[in-house]
Amino acid sequence: MKRVLLLILLAAATQLSCSVNEYCVNCAKDDGGNGDGNDHGDGGQISDGHNGGDACVPDGTEICDGADNDCDGKTDEDTTAEPLPHVGEDCSSNVGECTAGKTMCVSGKLTCSGKTAVAETCNDKDDNCDGMTDNGDPGGGAICGTDMGECISGVEHCVNGAVVCTGNIDGNPETCDGKDNDCDGMFDEDIPPLGSCGPAQGNTGECKLGMLMCAGGGTTCVGAVYPTFELCDNLDQDCDGDPHNGYDLQNDARNCGTCGHVCAIPHGTAACTTGACAVGACDPGFFDVNKDPSDGCEYACDFNGPQESCNGLDDNCNGQIDENVTPPPGLCRTLGACAGSTATCNGVAGFSCNYGPNVSKDANGNIVPESTCDDIDNDCNGVKDDPFPTKGQTCHDANKGICQGTGTNVCNGNKDGVTCMITMPGQPMQPAETCNGLDDDCDGVVDNGANGGNLAGQSWITLATGHQIMQYEASRADAKVNDQGNLTITPCSKSGVEPWTDVTAPQAQAACAAITGAHLCSEEEWQRACAVVTPTVYPLDEPSANNGQMFLEAEDFYKVTPATTTGAPIATRTWEPDYTIGFSGMMAMHANPDTGANLSLANAFGQGPRLDYEINFKTTGNHYVWVLMYSPNNSGNTLGVGVVQSSLTPAAPTQTLTTTGNGSWMWIRSAAFNVTTLGNGLVEIYMREDGMKVDAVLITRSNSTTAPTNTSGPGHVYAYDSSPDTYAANTCNGADYDTDSVTPGDQDDIIPTGSVLTTCDASWSGSKIFDLTGNVQEWTAPRIPGVNPIRGGASNDIAGGLTCALAFAAADDTFFFPNVGFRCCR
Hints:
Elements: H1 2-16, E1 90-91, E2 101-106, E3 109-112, E4 143-144, E5 154-159, E6 162-166, E7 196-197, E8 210-215, E9 218-222, E10 268-273, E11 276-282, E12 286-287, E13 299-300, E14 342-345, E15 351-354, E16 394-396, E17 406-411, E18 418-424, E19 460-462, E20 468-470, H2 505-513, E21 519-520, H3 523-531, E22 540-541, E23 550-553, E24 559-561, E25 563-564, E26 572-578, E27 588-592, H4 601-607, E28 610-617, E29 621-630, E30 638-644, E31 655-658, E32 665-669, E33 673-675, E34 679-687, E35 693-700, E36 761-764, E37 767-770, E38 777-779, E39 788-791, E40 807-811, E41 820-822, E42 824-825
Parallel strand pairs: 22-28, 38-41
Antiparallel strand pairs: 1-2, 2-3, 4-5, 5-6, 7-8, 8-9, 10-11, 12-13, 14-15, 16-17, 17-18, 19-20, 21-42, 23-35, 24-28, 25-26, 26-27, 27-35, 28-34, 29-32, 29-33, 29-35, 30-31, 30-34, 36-37, 38-39, 39-40
């Protein structure tokens, strides 16, 4: 079609031009020139007289064609005569895109000054001014689009002012499916990557992630690098983050520190330690002394064991000789001046001791016995100055007793002996000796005269009997306020010191016997002192009046005599104190032990204990003996009575007295005793049946059978300075007295005798005997061998145990206790 149009144009051009060649197209009319469109001939003279190519030929009336039709030298002038439309006439209309105007000649053509109809085009306008828009489907009808790939060709139509191709002509976006979805003649092209792909380790080590690409209608991972077997090359082929896993660069001698670094150790086996070459083991006879792996096991040595010996050899092959060797135990002495000494190893010569300058040595360095007194143990045997054995011992000056100064033997100035250095000078000599365990008069004799009992510190009080008793509880000579001392020589009697306790009865007897004429106080002596009772003075003179009546307390005897049987069973019998209710005087007397014995009058003389009362008979004739008796039962209701005239030699009883009832005190009278010889004699009371008790004895010349009445009082109850018959708490050291009034609690401590509770005393005509009741209990003389009575109360006894009359149970010869002491009589 394009070719037909071109031919028509060429033919028209041939008809219009006047000179046509193969190059001229649409030449100007009557142009004899070269077809350049000008009204000039190509080589002639123009019609205006100039030289032109051809001469002008008039062809009629001037018309609007761009030529000088009338050859008047003007073009398209005066064209009104041209056929219609004529210039100046109305043209076009105001329909559609057209506008009304006037016909005009412009550039050789008639034209309307308004807009004229044109062929309809697809532009949503009324181009042909027929009143309709895009009518006739302008531009439509042509085949359009493509049928390539997945597309199907369409048909063009004018729609809403635009030619559009209807049908599946554009295709779809390309997808990875092996098809030409976008109909461009290619398939799966220009599809962007579909995301990352590759190893699970990602971009770790040598691994790399790739891109998921479309190829051949499917996806493939492009550029990914996956894990491979790890090599020792500092690369992480297995992509686990460790470029050396599987290769121990710290300990692998073939890859030590870095890959491929192989350790080599001369004379040994290589090792790798913390990434550095090291000696693993040495060959026999070689040792790594300098710890430098570069020269390996550089030290050749004969190994003798791990312990070095003092022998000049490197036994443990560590490059040192005789280092850290230990000398044999006890090689060097360590006592005295040798303390801190050390031993030196001298190689093949062995050890030698390094002793200081104070050690006594011979020329060869051997220790020899010391000879200098310098307060140093020179020979290191643990004894300083052993040639001088008295050094350090207590010494004294030439004085004696308390005058003597004491000190210590020290080395003399020449260091060849000792001298006494007095550190405690002696005391001044005292004019008189005191019972204190010291030599007060400095004559070399301690307490000389103490055995006489008359030293200061041996205070005695004279009783009404003429006997004496210690004023204070017996104490040791070296006793102090809070210390009873240790000396067991002659006892003292002084205030302000601890009494002597923890002593047995035999020890108390021996202590008293150390004083000439003294003895352990008897019960009767002790109680007379405590109760302040004046005794009968023997011999008792028989009065002439009142029928010669003489009343005696049984305990106020002239003499008591125990008796020991020789039969079976062997027993020692005596009269002991008794306190059965109803007694008079200080006490009653009881025949003990109560074994149920029943002696005849004849046997009573040898086997029964006896109470003697010395009487100075002044009237002859019949005398009667009344006895206040108590029988516990019918096995203890008899006793024997005898009268010895003009003699103090005992004799057998001649009469038996028997109670008429048991369980109460009753007077029983004897038959008549005919006194024929005047002078001193004895009234004797013998035990016949043990268990019998006797409280009083009455001798009279009256034969009356009416029982007498008691005529004697009991004496004081307590050893108080005042009101001795009424108990007063805290007067004596009993259970109610606490030694510390500030500290709470029950305190039963023993106190210094006679110095704290100064009103705890038995008052004897201005003289006082202290602590007879309270503080400590006191031994008294044995009633019979092995039966030792204890009298007086102690610091832990209540009121009833502090009375003078209370006789505690007797103890044997082995008993001792911290609250039992004693005092002596003479």
